[in-house]
Amino acid sequence: xxxxxxxxxxxxxxxxxxxxGRLLTTIKTKTSLVRTPQLMVEWxxxxxxxxxxxxxxxxxxxGAPGPIDVSKGILVNxxxxxxxxxxxxxxxxxxxxxxxxxxxxxxxxAGLGEFHQGAGRGTRNMVYITWSTxxxxxxxxxxxxxxxxxxxxxxxxHMIVDPNGPLDRxxxxxxxxxxCGGNNLARQTGHPxxxxxxxxxxxxxxxxxxxxxxxxxxxxxxxxxxxxFDPELFVIGGGVTHSWTLxxxxxxxxxxxxxxxxxxxxxxxRRARLGDSSGLVGAVEWARANQ
Length: 291
Prior knowledge:
By secondary structure, the chain is α/β, with parallel strands linked by helices.
């Protein structure tokens, strides 16, 4: 039996699955209810034990927000988890469950989930982008998750699109996330990002200008990613996909505007299909690949 955990700033989800990756049970709770690493580990271990029905859980993967020391399974300082600094999550979960634990970036695992069971099925090279309060990504290269030399590949939100742009929370200026991330859009406009997109959908002129500007910057990032990785497909997930009809035309039009990227090698752009389940599906697939 395999396990997967999706650790987010709002919710924590746990799944148990068969050895072929098929999900059997999923459980979730609010992160605020398991607000410390010890509480989260105790809750997850108890739910896994309660639902394994006597079977041994051999491998568990957990998707967590970065930065992460993937070689040691340590959460370094995730911005959306207050107080979670240098948490040895792999060793804590291993002691609590007896399983082999693999800690990975949450966006990487969401991309892996979409690749195996979602919008990316049938491809070999794809880029997954999660576009919500922040922006992250997962790279699938020749059918495998590409993590880079230090396990940090796919930090799409921190690609610099304008060196004279606004200061991002990462310390760089002009990051894609500074132009498109929901937190930064809310800061710039004084409106929560979700409300901003709703206003744009209702026809508010100023809100539409902001949303289309963000989509244009994301489209420019798609051009750079196409030239860097030559993917077959972009899969866009995260909260912004609830406003897919607003952003999709601008994404595609911007990508098509590149005279260098000819139609024969222009990637398709799809909305993610698995919704909130993408991270869990990907975590199980990662546990399956690293038994």
